Amino acid sequence: MSVLVLVAPGSEEIETVAILDVLVRANITVLLASCCPAGLRQIRASRGVQLVTDCHLDELPQEEFEMIVVPGGLPGSECIRDNTRAISLLREQAASGRWRAALCAAPAVVLLPHQLLGKASITCHPGFWARIPSAQLSHERVVIDKDARLVTSQGPGTAIEFALTLVQVLRGATAAEAVAGPMVI
Predict the structure, then answer these.
(1) Residue 44 · residue 107 · CB < 8 Å
(2) In 96-138, which residue ranges form alpha helices assigned H by DSSP?
(3) Tens digits of per-residue pLDDT, 26-77?
(4) Taking the C-alpha atoms of 21, 98, 151 and 170 in order, what is their torsion angle to the nearest 10 degrees?
(5) Which positions are annotated as active-site residues?
(6) Are 165 and 20 in contact (CB under 8 A)?
(7) SS3 content of the chain, % helix, strand, coil (to 5)
(8) CA 64, CA 52: separation in Å to the nearest integer?
């Protein structure tokens, strides 16, 4: 099984690259998929960095993913929110009880409008806290809701911590520590 990371024009580059890098360091297979219109595989991220994906969302192999991750950034999160295939995959993931993860704007912009948060305890970028029901909002940097099988985080400054938490959730604390050590975390 592998992890699917969804990106679109305007996705946050620090978050995207940190997720990919840390998961690969943990020997987790990662597939970066573009949610671009017109089937494009190259995207310009939120600060202008060019990213080339492994495939377009329409070219995904028929497989179940261990986890689906949505980095933040605008307008990338809005593009993913409006992509029916991406939302369908996230719904299937939740319905199957498999892990999902989102950070920065993505919990509020992608998951919330499609009722993909349930009653989970979450966090997101502080600029979006007002959108999250107060009973669900945590101000922690990274939040794991084991019941919902959802990991959320606040933004670019928490991206490595978030990615290490994904490793911990998928492969255990020892694997996360093995990755963090050489990174001097």
Answers:
(1) no
(2) 106
(3) 999 999 999 987 788 999 999 999 999 999 999 998 889 999 999 999 999 9
(4) -50
(5) 104
(6) no
(7) 40, 20, 35
(8) 23
What pLDDT, in 10s, does the model give residues 144-173? 999 999 999 999 999 999 999 999 999 999
Which pairing describes strands 99-103 and 65-70: parallel, antiparallel, or unpaired?
parallel
H or E segment to which residue 176 belongs: helix 173-180
Which residues, including other chains, have CB under 8 Å from residue 130's CB and lie 6 or more apart?
none
Dihedral over Cα of 124, 129, 135, 141: its sign: positive
Helix (H, G, I), strand (E, B) or coil at 137: strand
Nearest to 52 by CA among 85, 17, 90, 87: 17
Per DSSP, 107 falls in state: I
Residue 22 · residue 179 · CB < 8 Å:
yes
Cβ-Cβ contacts under 8 Å for 182 (sequence gap 6 or more): 25
Which is it for the CA torsion 163, 165, 167, 170, positive or negative?
A: negative
